[in-house]
Amino acid sequence: MTDVFNLSTDQEAGLAAAAEAVRGGRCVVLPTDTVYGIGANAFDATAVQGLLDAKERGRDMPPPVLIAEPSMLRAIADEVPAGAAALAKAFWPGALTLILKAQARSGMSLGETKGTVAVRVPDHDGARALLRRTGPLAVSSANVSGQPAALTCDEARDQLGERVAVYLDGGTVTGGVASTIVDFASVAGGRVLRQ
User: Fold this and answer.
1) Does residue 137 contact residue 76 with C-beta atoms inside 8 Å?
2) CA–CA distances in Å: residue 104 to residues 50, 79, 100, 185, 187
3) 22-74 pLDDT, tens per residue?
4) Which parts of 56-183 fold into alpha helices (H)?
5) How far apart, in whole angstroms, are the C-alpha atoms of residue 125 and residue 30?
């Protein structure tokens, strides 16, 4: 059974249902500042595998992790170099993804990450409101691999259907530019992988 909630008219019920689905190990769809995302509990290996299965994607393409606030970085990253902290302060929330060494004790199983985690704070109030309730979520674009990314909730539903427990409809998203990715896991001073 799949539920759809409109964030402009039914935000409280939608966030509550989505948070409950995440706690139950199921996938949810949420709007972000770029495209719609499919999210699952980042600390639940079975839930993350469900996300990858829904997208028909292998563990060789692990999803990034979205957090509500920069202060949540410590829960998932082993160390936050000064350069990474400065970028986070300047550009979060927003289209910046930091690759950091993953916190080994966190229990995250995102796929073949080589001990790293890609993390971002989205510039979307609805997404951050959900993240405040759920904690870090593994989030990838809400589409089947190889298909166009969803810019509306209906586009995400057309592709993912019943594989998702709760859809949060935040209207049409901008399809904004993909985030800049800076790798601090392999280069202490940071290296831009995607501008």
Assistant:
1) no
2) 22, 11, 12, 13, 19
3) 999 999 999 999 899 999 999 999 999 999 999 999 998 899 999 999 999 98
4) 73-76, 82-91, 125-134, 153-160
5) 11
